[in-house]
UniProtKB/TrEMBL annotation:
The lineage of its organism: Eukaryota, Metazoa, Ecdysozoa, Arthropoda, Hexapoda. GO terms for molecular function: nucleic acid binding; zinc ion binding. Residues 251-262 have a biased composition (Basic and acidic residues). Residues 224-234 have a biased composition (Low complexity). PANTHER family: CCHC-TYPE DOMAIN-CONTAINING PROTEIN. Residues 72-156 form the Retrotransposon gag domain. It comes from Rhodnius prolixus. It comes from the Eukaryota. Pfam families: Retrotrans_gag. Residues 224-262 are annotated as: Disordered. InterPro entries: Retrotrans_gag_dom (IPR005162), Znf_CCHC_sf (IPR036875). This is Retrotrans_gag domain-containing protein.
Length: 315
């Protein structure tokens, strides 16, 4: 059976890939990347970004070598123009760039930095492993998988090391998985509830019954007593009283007596009644109100002591 003819203009073209675009368009990936050795972009980060963009744009190493002068400014640009003819491979450029713009003894300092980078007290193992592997990736000679496992394990918090047995770890991913398992257990421990007591259980016969405290045997008690008798506690000798101490004590005693007297006076004053105004707290001589006539002997108001019938009955 003959196949129907299809109009060539209706055939679907395959979706274009980035490699099918003109070369100039692919270099737009690098338009925002410039290195002048003075900006916040370090030499290490610059080299890392170049390799990331090279892989994303699918530009070959040979093409990127020719484009390198567009990625530098100022002194690094002059350096690139002087050295570019000596680079036949991408590794030649990376080696020369590291030797020129990386800090002196960079690899040695980086190794020490990796050794000192331990896990923080509240740092999750995922964050810690990623941070440490980022440092390891900067090494010129990458660490093997067993070396990475050993370095990460040795820098873990001790509580992780108690849970994870190093000999059972097969990879960095496995180590991280065990660490996350420990973190889940630790999170559950924070919300763990103790079992209910017997009196609050539906089935007291199966409720948790805490074991009583161990009793001390009589033999042990007698041995402790014999030791205490054989080696009694020595009392510290009392310091002899000096003149200063005696004067201080007498001052304290006087102060105490004065306080008691003041308290008694306060209690007594609340019971005193003024015969002039009949109010508590003061006597007649201290009264500031208008004077009245009264018997100074019995307090009868309106008469004096001389004419008081209560006080002059015998006269």
């Amino acid at each position: 059976m003959p196949q129907p003819k299809v109009n060539p203009s209706l055939k679907e073209d395959p979706s274009p890939t980035i490699s099918s675009y003109p070369t100039d368009f692919r270099f737009h990936f690098f338009s925002s990347l410039k290195f002048d050795n003075t900006t916040s972009l370090s030499a290490e980060d610059f080299l890392l970004r170049i390799n990331e963009k090279r892989k994303a744009s699918k530009i070959s190493e040979e093409e990127l070598l020719l484009y390198l002068p567009e990625l530098f400014q100022d002194t690094p640009l002059n350096w690139c123009r002087l050295e570019i003819d000596n680079w036949t491979q991408w590794n030649d450029f990376e080696t020369a760039f590291r030797a020129t713009f990386f800090p002196s003894n960079y690899q040695e300092k980086l190794k020490k930095e990796i050794e000192k980078r331990t896990q923080g007290e509240y740092e999750k193992i995922l964050d810690f492993v990623i941070s440490l592997k980022t440092l390891m990736k900067k090494l010129t000679h990458p660490l093997s998988e067993p070396e990475q496992i050993s370095t990460i394990y040795n820098n873990l918090l001790p509580k992780y090391q108690l849970y994870i047995r190093k000999s059972e770890v097969t990879s960095v991913a496995h180590l991280m998985s065990l660490g996350q398992e420990f973190e889940r257990i630790e999170d559950r421990a924070k919300t763990f509830r103790s079992p209910p007591p017997v009196d609050r259980s539906m089935f007291p016969e199966v409720a948790y019954k805490p074991s009583p405290l161990p009793k001390v045997s009589s033999k042990k008690m007698s041995s402790v007593a014999s030791v205490q008798q054989a080696y009694p506690k020595q009392q510290r000798p009392k310091k002899p009283k000096t003149k200063n101490n005696a004067s201080t004590n007498s001052a304290k005693e006087e102060t105490g007596i004065t306080a008691i007297e003041k308290k008694n006076d306060a209690d007594t004053s609340s019971k005193i009644v003024c015969w002039n105004c009949l109010e508590n707290g003061h006597r007649y001589p201290a009264c500031i109100k208008t004077r009245t006539i009264f018997c100074y002997h019995c307090g009868t108001r309106g008469i004096t002591r001389k004419h008081c019938p209560n006080c002059n009955k015998g006269n």
